[in-house]
Amino acid sequence: MTAATTVTKILRPAALRASGVHVHSSKLPSELAKSASAYLSSASSSGNKAILPDLPYDYNALEPIISTETMTLHHTKHHNAYVTNLNVSLEKLDTAVSTGDVSSIISLQGALKFNGGGHLNHSLFWENLCPKGTIDFPSSGPLKEAIEARFGNVENMKKELSAMSVGVQGSGWGWLGYDVKTGHIEPATCPNQDPLHATTGLIPLLGIDVWEHAYYVDYRNVRPNYVNAIWDVIDWKKVEERLVAAVAK
Ligand SMILES: [Fe+2]
């Protein structure tokens, strides 16, 4: 699944389908409708529930940059918790929307943003990693051209995004995103589990999880060492695929 399809996939819970009610309904405040749609879109179209995706590699595949222990805990415990809690919130939202209970819909926004964002962010994150030394930065093509247009060269991009990611206060994410308005790649950060596209409009190409759960086992509290090391396990082919899909939107 590409970033674009992940972002745009729309889930319509059973009650919404049965009632014909859309979260874009003019009966709901526009920002509320927008955010509800965004969070619903992070869920899987398989049934009406979000599902924990399989990793595209083994848990030990990113050694020694990211340990088997970190990958196992991160995927089976942390990401799985976001999925579980998102599904609980989606069930409540389904009921609230179908009954027109705007107060309950509003009260669910925090949980939906956090758990929906957590599910979406991690689903993107796993796919933009690969075993060390298997996929090099491309020597030509659209990704190289876009990065050189914005940053001069890939090393400058790494430095800028690394510094921004290390500088995230508390927990959050560093991102490389595509701005459809300008046609440029841009670095960005998001706090907590705020999803990049839903909160900034940028289409995510590459994410760096800087929550401590992503690196504490391997790097303890030294976030800069983790961020500097993660460049060795980036799947540049996936990043370029996302860029091509974003440009085509
Ligand atoms: Fe994480």
Automatic annotation (TrEMBL):
InterPro entries of this UniProt entry?
Fe/Mn_Superoxide_Dismutase, Mn/Fe_SOD, Mn/Fe_SOD_BS, Mn/Fe_SOD_C, Mn/Fe_SOD_N, Mn/Fe_SOD_N_sf, SOD_C_sf
Q: Which GO terms describe its molecular function?
A: metal ion binding; superoxide dismutase activity
Q: What class of enzyme is it?
A: oxidoreductase
This enzyme's EC code(s): 1.15.1.1
Q: Which part of the chain is the Manganese/iron superoxide dismutase N-terminal domain? A: 52-129
Give the UniProt keywords, A-Z.
Answer: Iron, Metal-binding, Oxidoreductase
Q: What does this protein do?
A: Destroys radicals which are normally produced within the cells and which are toxic to biological systems.
Q: What is this protein called?
A: Superoxide dismutase
According to its UniProt entry, this protein's organism is Discostella pseudostelligera
